[in-house]
Inverse folding.
């Protein structure tokens, strides 16, 4: 690729213009951007605001990652290659220049630009603190809300001198069709986007660059939520303190699970939220470090959501593509014209007794354990909850990152099976390297780590030859997942060895909210499929898994070997 080092200097030059009068760049601090943004938004009956956008989800397929040879290998999809073909033209449209005989004056020289600065991370670790600088063109005044919404995610404080600077410039005024085009330069700490007014691009774009920078400093960034749990262990009656991290692709219940109380209601018990989306795993002491100050949640909340749905009635809640009627009522489950509603809920809007006192978890030696949950959705033969014990198999499932596509990723492929390393679609560089770092972390702290695969979809689904569903799966829903999680945390869960997966499957010791036994037999695969069908489906799944893992050339070979033994391949 060409030399794009000039882009970083361009970012700095544009920001410098905001310090002077009579320029096209305005820095917004305090409430000023909120007041402008609200003029174009829909007010909810709770005094929050919503804005509808032209692009309704991330333009993941059209996001090209640009850098050295190893980084460029990440551009595998045809849409990414299409974006790369247009990079010089799109950058000329943004910054000015001549391409294919046509001269472009550069929209950043002509259009009004909003500039918003925030700091990512708690600030306690300089290796996991980032100055984030967002620039948004606002020819259309509706686009003021992008910087306003994004600004609610991070800390509004002065730049941290020793922290790296990250930049995003997005030009939604350029129309590129149903998806935008994004160019990430992680080595430069710069992302340029055109054609999308979806705020999630700004949030995820900064996280992508920050996690790349953190990896260079020995901190593994993971797509996971975090919390601190205090639960009474029934074996000794003591209140234990656990760190909990939940992995999961968008739409798999990561945010819902991190916000749930798990019905931990005994004296001394608590479920305390630290982080919703991305954290860093610090190798030196096992700490889980937070990035943001808010939830970025999917708005399809039902009445079983005990925390987030009531909290969205805060005037601090803002959203894109949320269904709001003419009276300001919110239609949380109305998806006909709002299929990927997304909201930002600041942690400060949550009840204080549900929040941990930091977005960072304590060092692992201050905890009784660190529990990892891999959220997945597979409505057929993946057990509802499995325990994985060895560091090699834990890492194997980290590398598999199994789930199904949701409207947040590609709405045209909702329900299709996907595998994404670490359930993290924002990895820059060789994914095997991420797996090896994760493996080292798990090995180092294995005495404190427990790992579970949580199927938040269901089991037992059957489809005909035309892929039409002929039997719906047995589903645990949100409450069932909470009951089972509580059984794990209180140490009442009963397990059985699974000969097909090399894991332990939860079979009992689970009670509902009233203390009555919860029927785990409803999820027994042997009761849902005949023996021949079950064997065939499991064999096909396990074969696919091994074929997937074999693609990672520099992954520690002990991981693949352990997975082959566990899956009997």
């Amino acid at each position: 690729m060409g030399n794009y080092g000039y882009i970083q200097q361009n970012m700095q030059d544009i920001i410098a213009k905001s310090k002077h009068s009579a320029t096209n760049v305005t820095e917004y601090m305090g409430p000023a951007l909120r007041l402008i943004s609200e003029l174009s938004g829909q007010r909810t009956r709770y005094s929050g605001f919503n804005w509808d956008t032209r692009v309704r989800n991330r333009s993941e397929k059209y996001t090209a990652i640009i850098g050295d040879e190893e980084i460029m290998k990440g551009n595998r999809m045809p849409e990414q290659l299409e974006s790369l073909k247009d990079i010089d033209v799109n950058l000329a449209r943004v910054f000015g220049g001549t391409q294919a005989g046509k001269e472009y004056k550069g929209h950043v020289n002509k259009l009004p630009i909003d500039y918003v600065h925030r700091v990512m991370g708690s600030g306690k670790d300089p290796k996991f603190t980032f100055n984030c600088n967002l620039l948004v063109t606002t020819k259309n005044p509706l686009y003021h809300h992008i910087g306003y919404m994004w600004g609610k995610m991070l800390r509004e404080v002065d730049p941290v001198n020793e922290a790296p600077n990250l930049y995003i410039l997005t030009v939604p005024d350029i129309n590129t069709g149903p998806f935008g085009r994004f160019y990430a330069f992680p080595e430069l700490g710069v992302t340029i986007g055109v054609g999308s007014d979806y705020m999630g691009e700004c949030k995820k774009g900064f996280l992508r660059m920050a996690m790349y920078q953190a990896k260079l400093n020995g901190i593994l960034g993971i797509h996971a939520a975090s919390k601190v749990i205090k639960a009474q262990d029934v074996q000794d009656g003591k209140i234990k303190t656990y760190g909990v991290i939940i992995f999961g692709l968008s739409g798999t219940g990561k945010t819902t699970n991190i916000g749930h109380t798990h019905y931990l209601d005994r004296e001394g018990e608590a479920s305390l939220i630290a982080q919703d989306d991305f954290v860093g795993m610090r190798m030196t002491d096992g700490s889980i470090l937070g990035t943001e100050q808010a939830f970025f949640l999917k708005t399809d909340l039902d009445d079983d959501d005990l925390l987030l749905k009531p909290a969205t009635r805060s005037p601090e809640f803002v959203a894109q593509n949320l269904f709001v009627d003419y009276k300001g009522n919110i239609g949380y489950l109305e998806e006909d014209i709002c299929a990927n509603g997304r909201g930002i809920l600041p942690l400060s809007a949550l009840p204080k007794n549900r929040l941990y006192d930091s977005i960072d978890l304590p060092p692992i030696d201050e905890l009784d354990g660190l529990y990892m949950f891999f959220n997945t959705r597979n409505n057929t033969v993946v057990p509802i909850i499995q325990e994985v014990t060895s560091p090699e198999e834990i890492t194997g499932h980290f590398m598999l990152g199994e789930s199904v596509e949701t409207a947040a990723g590609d709405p045209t492929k909702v329900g299709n099976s996907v595998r994404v390393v670490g359930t993290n679609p924002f990895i820059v560089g060789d994914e095997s390297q991420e797996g090896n770092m994760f493996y080292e972390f798990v090995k180092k702290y294995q005495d404190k780590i427990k790992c579970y695969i949580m199927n938040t979809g269901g089991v037992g689904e059957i489809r005909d030859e035309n892929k039409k569903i002929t039997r719906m799966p047995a589903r645990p829903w949100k409450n069932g997942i909470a009951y089972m999680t509580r059984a794990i945390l209180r140490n009442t869960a009963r397990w059985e060895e699974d000969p097909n997966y090399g894991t332990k499957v939860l079979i009992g010791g689970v009670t509902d909210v009233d203390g009555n036994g919860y029927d785990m037999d409803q999820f027994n695969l042997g009761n849902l499929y005949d023996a021949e069908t079950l064997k065939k489906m499991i064999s096909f799944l396990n074969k696919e898994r091994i074929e997937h893992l074999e693609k990672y050339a520099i992954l520690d070979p002990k991981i693949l070997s352990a997975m082959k033994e566990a899956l009997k391949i």
Notes: The two ends are 41 Å apart (CA to CA). Residues 511 and 518 are 5 Å apart (CA to CA).
